[in-house]
Amino acid sequence: MKLGILVNEGPYTHQASDTAYHFVKAALAKGHEVFRVFFYHDGVNNATRLTVPPQDERNIVKRWSELAAQHKLDLVVCIAAAQRRGIMDAAEAKRHGKDAHNIAPGFRISGLGQLIEAGIQADRLVVFGD
Amino acid sequence: MEEAHGVIKKFLYVNRKAPYGSIYALESLEVVLIGAAFEQEVSLAFVGDGVYQLAKGQDTKGLAMKNFSPTFRALEDYDVTRLYVEEEALQARGLTAADLVVPVELVSAPRMAEIMEGHDVILSF
């Protein structure tokens, strides 16, 4: 089955990102295809490479980046939601005259159309949120 | 933007939260507006506190936030005309259809479940 995933909550404060991660991992292990993981609302905070959780805690951001590298996952962060919350790639930072960017490897910033497209292309769109 | 050629799916946006206490309602509406360009079949559902999003007479001046309830009236221009409101949720909050900014279809909670069943893509906010 071809799956689309929507993550609507930030890391650590809410289980949505953890559950989505384990769901995606399990789905891939079972041979399903993950068309795209889209991060929206506070979910965009899953894409900052500046998180430094305590060493004995899971690193949620790094875990997504590694899974993306292993499986060529398409991790997409909503641009409008990202701008509100200060998630930037180099191009966005330059465009807005910001002195830094923070997007983690494996993530890309794009528009909400990518979410709609995931809904159209995937057999199931699974939403993880509050 | 890429688009699947010829595929038309039934999208249902389920709004569950009051409009200003969190950002879900506003950002849900942003998805609806973007999604309207994809020529899919789009409907909106309002359940629980989500019915407050449609309440008339919203005044957000004191909140320093934009009152986005007029946008619901503009949805018609985007060919989004099916708005389902959970009747029980409305009643529980002392509201009637006359208190809402747009004409809606009132449906019972069990009927809402059937409506959800009849959609291909459900985005809940």
What topology, given as strand order, has the largest sheet of chain A? Answer: 4-3-2-1-5
Can you tell me the CATH class of chain A? Alpha Beta
Extended strand count of chain B: 5
Taken as a percent bin, the fraction of beta residues of chain B is: 15-25%
What shape does the CA trace of chain B take?
globular
Instruction: Let me know the CATH homologous superfamily of chain A.
Output: DsrEFH-like
Largest binding interface between chains = A-B, 20 and 23 residues
Give the amount of beta strand of chain A, in percent: 15-25%
Q: Give the rounded overall mean pLDDT of chain A.
A: 97
Structural class label of chain B: alpha/beta
The number of distinct helices of chain B, counting runs of at least 4 residues, comes to: 4
E-strand count of chain A: 5
| Low-pLDDT residue spans of chain B | none
Report the end-to-end length of chain A measured between terminal Cα atoms.
Answer: 25 Å
- Please indicate the count of domains of chain A: 1
CATH topology description of chain A: Hypothetical Protein Ychn, Chain: A
Task: Give me the CATH fold name of chain B.
Answer: Hypothetical Protein Ychn, Chain: A
Number of helices of chain A: 5
Strand order of the largest sheet of chain B: 4-3-2-1-5
Overall geometry of chain A comes to: globular
Q: Could you describe the 3D structure shown?
A:
Chain A is of the alpha/beta class and 130 residues long. Chain A has a single domain, classed as DsrEFH-like (Hypothetical Protein Ychn, Chain: A), CATH 3.40.1260. Helices cover 37% and strands 20% of the residues of chain A. Chain A has five helices and five strands; from the N terminus they run βαβαβααβαβ. Chain A has helices spanning 16-29, 60-71, 79-85, 90-95, 113-121; strands spanning 2-7, 33-39, 75-78, 107-110, 124-128. A five-stranded parallel sheet of chain A has the order 4-3-2-1-5, with helices on both faces. In chain A, strand 1, helix 1 (16-29) and strand 2 (33-39) form a beta-alpha-beta unit. In chain A, helix 1 (16-29) packs parallel to helix 2 (60-71). The model of chain A has no long low-confidence stretch (mean pLDDT 97). Chain B is an alpha/beta fold. Chain B has a single domain, classed as Hypothetical Protein Ychn, Chain: A, CATH 3.40.1260.10. Helices cover 26% and strands 19% of the residues of chain B. Chain B has four helices and five strands. A five-stranded parallel sheet of chain B has the order 4-3-2-1-5. In chain B, helix 2 (70-74) links the parallel strand 2 and strand 3. The chains are: A alpha/beta (130), B alpha/beta (125). At the A-B interface, helix 3 and helix 5 of A face helix 1 and strand 5 of B.
